[in-house]
């Protein structure tokens, strides 16, 4: 079993055998274990690349990736937390500035210089994805210093287990003031969790806290689709100022993943203190 490299067994195998296996099926022998193991091997061989876009210029917060938060540049926080995801095979920061490259490499990370004039972070991610050639590419926002690595894993899993070639997280809105906040992107889904529409307006119109969902800016793509996506056109995207509508308008499905993670982006100076308090709380109580 050690010689073959990847050992698998059914659920009813002897415990001594299970201890030597990297994958134990949820099914017993003769009840679907072989098919389950083959499915596992097929998906496990698909390479998942994490890319963190980090542009130096920012209108509201110049040099944002290098802004110091709790004694570290923000990009270091994002990189360190994303690197704790178990299902990423590689993690690269995509940037337009040598200073960001230096900050990432100083902590043992990998960064890649990209074109300076990309219109969006997604285009910057796509440049790296085209060079690396992984099966899946996860776009991890560079202004999320508290990103939950388990959520990244959940997105990779959603891509491997569902037919839509794009996956993204959503969470229930608990703060009533966010229902009509245009900076909070709302989403409605079908019964299988596939997105029907995203909007800055409240959708559905009668939505309430706890049952209305907001979108969290983390995307997983099958890389082949990502490279097509950057060349697509969309009127809905222009009207709503939401990139993800480009996919829906062009006929592609988006699988959503529900989470209780509360996104905490850093966009302006006042966000830094808010995130630092959260980091202090994490260190004190040992929570995510």
Automatic annotation (TrEMBL):
Pfam families: CTP_transf_3. CDD domains: CMP-KDO-Synthetase. GO terms for molecular function: 3-deoxy-manno-octulosonate cytidylyltransferase activity; N-acylneuraminate cytidylyltransferase activity. It comes from the Archaea. Its EC number is 2.7.7.43. One of its GO terms (cellular component) is cytosol. It is an enzyme of class 2 (transferase). InterPro entries: Cytidylyl_trans, HAD_sf, KdsB, Nucleotide-diphossugar_trans. Its main location: membrane. It is found in: Membrane. GO terms for biological process: carbohydrate derivative biosynthetic process; N-acetylneuraminate metabolic process. Keywords: Nucleotidyltransferase, Transferase. It catalyses: an N-acylneuraminate + CTP = a CMP-N-acyl-beta-neuraminate + diphosphate. Pathway: Amino-sugar metabolism; N-acetylneuraminate metabolism. Belongs to the CMP-NeuNAc synthase family. This is N-acylneuraminate cytidylyltransferase. It comes from Halodesulfurarchaeum formicicum. The gene is kdsB.
